[in-house]
Design goal:
Elements (H helix, E strand, L loop, with lengths): L17 E5 L6 H12 L2 E4 L1 H13 L7 H4 L7 E4 L4 E7 L2 E2 L7 H11 L2 H15 L4 E5 L2 H5 L5 E6 L2 H11 L5 H20 L12 E4 L5 H18 L4
Parallel strand pairs: 1-6, 1-7, 2-4, 2-6, 7-8
Antiparallel strand pairs: 3-4, 4-5
Helix pairs in contact: 1-9, 2-4, 4-8, 7-8
C-alpha cells in the first residue's frame, strides 16, 4: 500500500496524545477537529476523506460497491497529503488533486454504499493506525474510538439532530432551495441508517467516549469543550 505523504516541514506533535473524534455525517467532526488541532498544534486526519476518495474513484471508473475485487485495490491509489502543520486535508487520486471533487453531492449520496463494504474497511484499518502511530494527532471518523483506535487517549462522540446537520450541510453548499434542503435531510437520514446498521464497524459511541451534542452550541463552544477534554487528559498523562 502506498504511504500517505507528509510535508517535509510538518511540525508533527510527536509524543502528544491520540484523540478519536467520531460522529454522524455533518456533525462537525472535521471542522471542529481541524480547529482543535490548530489550537493544540496536533496533526489532524479526517478518515472520511479516504472513503470519499475511494467512492469518487470508483464512480469515475464505474466500479460498483458489489464489485469487491475491483473496489479494494483502489485503496492503494488514494493519498492524503499533509499541509505544513501536519493536517491531512488534501486528497490525491488518479494522479491528481481531487480534494474538491470528493466533497460533491454525488459522492455524498454514494459514499455510504462503498464504506459499508467489509473488505474495504479491513483494508484501510492498518493504514489509519499507521497515520496515528506517531501520536499528537486528532483523528476523525465513524469508528475511530471503537475499531481503529480503541486505546485512544481521548474519545469524543459529536452528535446533532438530523435537521441541524442538514442545515449545516445546506449552508456549506450555499443552498437556498427548499427542495434541495429536503433532499439533503433525506440523504443524511439514509446515511445514518446505513452507517448505524452495517455489520462491520457500525456507527456508535465508544463506551468511554465523551458525548457532545452540538445542537444549540456555537462553533467556538464545541471547540472549547473538546480542547478542554484533551487538555485535561494531557494533565492526567503528565503533559506532552
Amino acid at each position: 500500500m502506498t504511504a500517505d505523504r507528509k510535508s517535509h516541514s510538518s511540525p508533527a506533535a510527536r509524543g502528544g496524545l491520540v484523540v478519536a473524534i467520531d460522529g454522524p455525517s455533518s456533525s462537525g467532526k472535521s471542522t471542529v477537529g481541524t480547529e482543535v488541532a490548530s489550537r493544540l498544534r496536533y496533526r489532524f486526519c479526517d478518515t472520511g476523506l479516504l472513503y470519499r476518495a475511494i467512492a469518487w474513484l470508483a464512480l469515475e471508473r464505474r466500479v460498483a460497491p458489489t464489485d469487491v475485487a475491483g473496489l479494494v485495490p483502489l485503496a492503494a491509489e488514494i493519498r492524503l497529503v499533509a499541509d505544513s502543520r501536519g493536517r491531512l486535508r488534501r486528497v490525491e487520486a488518479d494522479g491528481r488533486d481531487v480534494t474538491v471533487e470528493v466533497r460533491s453531492a454525488v459522492v455524498d449520496r454514494a459514499v455510504s454504499d462503498y464504506s459499508k463494504v467489509p473488505e474495504l474497511r479491513v483494508a484501510l484499518v492498518s493504514r489509519q493506525r499507521a497515520i496515528a502511530a506517531e501520536g499528537g494527532i486528532i483523528m476523525a471518523g465513524r469508528d475511530i474510538g471503537t475499531v481503529i483506535l480503541p486505546n485512544a487517549d481521548v474519545k469524543i462522540f459529536l452528535s446533532a439532530s438530523p435537521e441541524e446537520r442538514a442545515r449545516r450541510r445546506a449552508a456549506q453548499r450555499k443552498t437556498t432551495e427548499e427542495g434541495e434542503a429536503e433532499q439533503i435531510l433525506d440523504e443524511l437520514r439514509r446515511r445514518d441508517a446505513i452507517d448505524s446498521s452495517r455489520e462491520i464497524a457500525p456507527l456508535r459511541p465508544a463506551p468511554d467516549a465523551l458525548l457532545v451534542n452540538t445542537d444549540g452550541n456555537t462553533f467556538d463552544q464545541t471547540v472549547a469543550m473538546v480542547v478542554s477534554a484533551i487538555r485535561s487528559a494531557e494533565g492526567g498523562a503528565g503533559g506532552r
